[in-house]
Structure formats: C-alpha cells, structure tokens
Design a protein that fits this description.
- With 447 residues, this protein is mainly alpha-helical.
- It has three domains: 150 residues, no CATH class; 74 residues; 110 residues, no CATH class.
- It is built from 22 helices and six strands.
- Strands 3, 4, 5 and 6 form a four-stranded antiparallel sheet that branches. Strands 1-2 form a two-stranded antiparallel ribbon.
- Strand 5 and strand 6 form a beta hairpin.
- Helix 19 crosses helix 20.
- The longest helix has 43 residues.
- It is globular and about 90 Å long.
- The two termini are 40 Å apart.
C-alpha cells in the first residue's frame, strides 16, 4: 500500500498498457509503492540529484528536463504523507527544451530507468492534478512521480559523494602528471648542460607520456623516473668529487716528495720598464666619454642590443597581460553600490520559492553567501562562472543576482530556459551600470 496526498490509499501505481516495461522501470514502480516513506525535503533531493546526475549518465536534454520537473514540484508535496507529483505533458516539455516529443519521451524513460521517476498514468494518458482548495493537498493526480528518488536519497548521496571523490582523484593525478613531467624535463635540460648523458631516461619519459595508462599509474611511473634522475645526478656529483680528491692527493704527494734544489741559480728574464709609466692608468678622453659610442659602452650590453634590434618594445608588448574585464568598485564596507536599495529583508520577501527548496530564510548576507554552492546547482552555474562574476562585481552583488535568478527560474521555468546564461547577462548589465536589481526583487515580492 502506498500513501497518496490527501491521506487516501492506493495499492498500485498504474502504468499505461502501451509502455514496454523493463526491469529497471519495474524497480522504480516498486519504489514508488513503498510503505516506509523516507523523510527528506525538496532541497535535499534536488541538490543530491544534480550532484549524482553525471554518475547516473544524466546529461544534456535529460538533465534539462529533470531540472524543469524538480522546479515544478511543490515543497509541501515532499512530506512523508504526500507524494511529489508533476503533471506536465510531453508537448509542453518539448516546447521548454526545444526538442521533439519523442526525444522528451526517451528522456523521461531514462529518468525512470535511473530510479528517479515513476510513471503514474491515468486511463486516458492525460496528466493532471486536482488540489484541495483549502489545504492545497493533492486530492487526485496523475503524472510523473518523484517517489523513487525520495526512497533512494541515501543511496544517491553515496553515489554523488563517490563520484565527487573519484573526480577529485582524477584531477589530482592529472596535475601530478603535468608537474612531474615538467620537473623531469627541467632536470634533463640541466643534465645536458652539465654533460651528463641521460638518453635512456629521456626515452622513458617519452614512452610514459605517450602511454594510454590511467593518470594515477602514469604519475607513479613519472615519480619513479624523477627519483632515478635525481639519483643519477647524485652519482655524477660523487664521481666528480672523487676525481677532485684524487687530483688533490696526487698534487700533495708531488709537493711532499720533491726536495728543494738550492744549487740552481735562478734564471729570470725581465724587461725593464719605466715604473712611472707602468703605474699610470690611461684616462678616458672627455670627448670620447661624451660621445654616443662611449655612452653606449657604459650601458648594459644586452639592453643596447635589444634597443638596436627593436626587441625591447616587442618584448614589452608581448609581456603585457590582457586587459581585465571592467568591474564595479565596492564601497568602503566592501559592498557594491548597486546594493544600496537592496536589503537581506527584501531578498527574503522576494525569494519564497528558493527558501522553500533550501529549507529556510537567509538570516544575513553571510548566510546567503554560504548557500551559493547550492544556488549554483539550482541554476546550473559552473564554479568558474561564479568566481568570474565575484571578481567583476563582488561577492555580495553576485550572490544577490544568483538568488534572484534561482527564484525566477523556479517560478517560471519556461520563461527562463537557461538560468546560468541569464545570471551572466545580469552580471554584464551590472558592470555596465544598467542593472536595476531592486526593481526585479520588488516585482518578485509583489508577484
């Protein structure tokens, strides 16, 4: 028996006869009929699904559809005595994502087989929801059920954490390969200058870098090669020190064994010179010193060469960093001047839907900025895009624009098909001084 919104009971989740069920789809239907409903929230499930989506193979159009469906669910429908149901037609979803209805149907099937959704089909195939006018609960409804995702929340969190750890390990191994390969190349260059022959190590470096083995194994092999080259340098230095010690010993032995010959008359040939002239140094000619030639002699030779060849200007121009994008200078307290009419209270009043997903209001600006990682996931914004926005307009203004974008995407997903692109466009307008964020927030508060 499965609980349905409004307190009614139903012994099965109906599936239309035209659907060809697979074992994965049957498992999702079984999860949707579970009696031991797992306690969770819409925000927890939404963030977990977006983190686990890459590990589940959900991307592109399927991910876009998942994002829309999550936004259409009500936060109260995720309670244990209710059912998170979405009633939207394939045709409407096709309009939202700009794809055909067949593509939408395949994406929905993929979400069902991934254990996220379950079909709850009506006899006519229509999807609709009737709510109680007083309580707002679903009295009767057919559509797409998120109950499987709710039941698997702990499993999905484990999948997301494992995927994140694996991704970090791969990135770290890739960085190690780059770091070690550069260090080895530098050592080989120094060895060539010192006349140390390390052709075998150089060939091994090429073999390792060209191999198709995983980066973690490649980093281990490069680490061993690096240690071998360092050991070769140590052996070469020890041999050089041994040769120097032997030469010094031989010289000392010759000096100690050779007796002074007192009978030999010293034979010195000297050329008499004028002592006065020999002690005098030629003084530079004043005219020569003032000439360009003499002045050029006292300048640094490498700078003179660069000046003559014209390389100085070229080097300076190539060394100049690219011009940074314009930014909005902050006030003395670190806030943006564009936030003069925006308060945390106004943001709380205007972002009810976002607060329902995140599970609470924003107590302060610090609290808002502490939830930006969750807000980024809600709008699909990359970490690089967030950092770039903060560098251009500051963290406070970027956070305010981000939460406003999330609220607009949740309220009207069909009008905001790409929330991340909208956010970046707002940042550009803020840089140009054309962003009226307070007007958007007042409109959301009144709407």
């Amino acid at each position: 028996m499965a609980l349905v919104n409004g307190g009614t009971m139903q012994n099965q989740i109906s599936v239309a006869t035209f659907r060809r069920l697979t074992p994965a789809m049957v498992e999702s239907q079984r999860l949707a009929m579970a009696n031991d409903i797992v306690a969770t929230t819409k925000a927890e499930v939404a963030i977990t699904l977006k983190k686990a989506a890459p590990a589940l193979g959900i991307e592109g159009t399927t991910y876009h559809i998942l994002d829309i469906l999550l936004g259409l669910t009500k936060a109260d429908d995720w309670k244990q005595d209710r059912r998170p149901l979405v009633a939207i037609s394939n045709e409407k979803l096709a309009d939202y994502v700009g794809r055909s209805t067949r593509t939408v149907a395949r994406s929905l099937k993929k979400l069902v087989e991934a254990g996220i959704l379950a079909y709850r089909d009506s006899p006519t195939g229509r999807r609709f929801i009737y709510r109680n006018e007083v309580s707002g609960d679903i009295d009767r409804g057919f559509g797409l059920d998120f109950s499987p995702a709710r039941q698997r929340i702990k499993e999905l969190q484990g999948i997301a954490d494992a995927f994140s750890a694996e991704l970090k390990a791969k990135q770290e191994a890739k960085r190690n390969v780059t770091r070690l390969s550069r260090a080895i190349a530098d050592l080989l260059a120094v060895a060539a200058l010192e006349g140390l022959r390390l052709e075998e190590h150089e060939a091994e470096l090429s073999v390792i870098l060209a191999s198709a083995i995983p980066n973690d194994l490649k980093a281990d092999r490069l680490s061993q090669l690096y240690e071998a080259i360092v050991a070769a340098f140590g052996t070469n230095e020890a041999a050089a020190e041994g040769e120097a010690t032997a030469a010094e010993s031989e010289t000392s032995f010759e000096e100690m064994s050779g007796a002074p010959d007192t009978d030999v008359t010293p034979y010195n040939i000297t050329t008499p010179q004028n002592s006065k002239k020999s002690n005098e140094r030629p003084s530079p000619n004043v005219d020569d010193f003032k000439s360009k030639k003499a002045y050029g002699f006292y300048k640094a030779p490498e700078k003179e060469h660069l000046r003559k060849s014209g390389a100085t200007d070229r080097t300076r121009s190539s060394a100049e960093p690219p011009k940074a994008k314009p930014s909005v200078p902050p006030n003395a307290d670190g806030t943006s001047p564009l936030l003069s009419e925006v308060s945390i209270g106004l943001i709380n009043t205007a972002t009810r839907e976002t607060q329902d997903i995140l599970g609470g209001a924003f107590r302060s600006w610090g609290d808002l900025m502490g939830r930006t990682s969750e807000l980024r996931l809600l709008v699909g914004l990359s970490e690089a895009g967030w950092r770039g926005a903060c560098s251009r307009v500051g963290q406070h203004l970027a956070a305010a624009v981000l939460v406003t974008t999330a609220e607009k995407a949740l309220r009207d997903p069909d009008q905001l098909a790409r929330p991340a692109g909208y956010f970046l466009a707002c940042i550009d307008r803020a840089v140009d001084g054309k962003l009226a964020l307070h007007r958007s927030l007042f409109g959301l508060a009144q709407g």
